[in-house]
Fold this protein.
Amino acid sequence: MKSSSKIDKKPVKQKSSDFDIDKFSNDNKLNELLRSILIEIRFYAEDQIKHIKQCAQIGVALSVEKDINKLLEMIVDEARALCNADAGTLYIVDNDKKYLRFKILQNDTMKTRMGGTSGVKSTLPNVPLYKDGKPNHFNVSSHVAITGEAVNIPDVYEAEGFDFTGAREYDAATGYRSKSMLVIALKNHENDIIGVLQLLNAQIPETREVIAFSHEYEDLVASLASQAAIALTNTQLIQDLKNLFYAFIKSIATAIDEKSPYTGGHITRVVDLTMMIAEKINESDEGPFKDVYFTEEELEELRLAAWMHDVGKITTPEHVVDKATKLVKIFDRIFYIENRFELIAKIIENENLKQKIELLKNGNNNETKIKFLEENLTNTLKDLQEDLEFIKECNNPGEFISDEKISRIKEIASKTYYINDEEHNYLSKDEVTNLWIRKGTLTEKERKIIENHAAMTYKMLKQLPFSKKLSKVPEYACSHHEKLDGSGYPQGLTLKNLPLQSRIMAIADIFEALTAKDRPYKKPMSLSQALKIMGFMKNDNHIDPDIYDLFIKSDLYHDYAKKEMNPEQIK
């Protein structure tokens, strides 16, 4: 019965944590040995788990980082942390694959950091991959870049096959002792070598004693290097695409500025001033903008919108964009009028001469009549010249056309002359329409064409597949001519619907246009006059009063003026 009860009873499965080493054997020495082995296995397992977690975290961090300088620095930081290396250097293969370029240098003992986010540029020379047309296997870094093989050296002073003159010279100059070295290639997803990671002086954490890099560390760093290469390649591709995109945008902006010789540099200056205002808002710790802060992504979005704000002008006819005077249509038609008036003068002179000839033919040599004809000719030609000078004045964009001037233009236009018995007016209807422009150079029809560039900007930019972070670029770019009271264009937005970014750009665009020194059709406006006009615009609820006040109180306008305006304008 007892035996059957033992058979029927289920055995209890012992947990590994309940294992009692002392009950396993009666041999104390064996117990101690087993205990030591188990402890070592546990530490090893814990250490491996730690490394696995660390590698996973590093992989995530590398894949997330998009700033190349930070990424390069992170690669060296994390590699050194993995194997307790005192120093590390990162090289990147140049585009021509002729050199290794220094990117990061770190040395904890020497408290040295170069490249990355340190703000200190590397002064170290590039490492040539070829010498005299042959692969350079003398430098360990170039050897690894050429072969892709990892090199693990316990002591560089005792190593053979590589030239460590540079390391010895560095040690002699600084008192440092270069010893153990691990050099590993960074290979991208296509197995191309894009860089070399060089670690120096592995240490025992507790004592900081320099030791050789273990094969375990070599495998860990190799794994990290692989992840780093892929992350770096991805980041470089993203940066290259971004650079290409910005270069394309800038080339379009340049083309727009070049399209009009009267607005060269306008877009660049608007970008600069827009970003100056945005950064000043970020610095504000009081007033209406104390709680406003643009992130890096938002600043990039605004910058791109500023670069693209006039892209719609690509569709605007050049003679409208470039209309320097009122009579311009392809070219300035004042030259037509000058020639016409010269022709009219000749017609008047010929008519006067005919009258004199008739008097003489009829035997009427009356000096009084001839004198009258000559005086009449002189006065008529004088009036004609005065009319021409008046028209030339009205053609000037800086000339305001009053009702009185409009009446005189009508009077001149109503005068006629004859060619081949055909009657012609002194001025054509279209010339009169343009000379009647009270302010500026554009007719109402031409102004609509110009204003259409803002709508075209939106239409063109909406076709581009902007990322989520840049999705507001079309909206900001097309709204820089909107006014707070709704009288702007293209949508007639009011303050309620007008983004802060567009309001910033509007002030930058207006101030640049008023103070530009490169407009050949107008005298550069003084700073005081420009601020007076913008003050009126603020009072008329056309521009954002808070932004304008910040623009003035921060002295931002003066900083811009010193950079972009002629000295005589700043008064």
Q: What stands out?
A: The first strand starts at residue 85 and ends at 93.
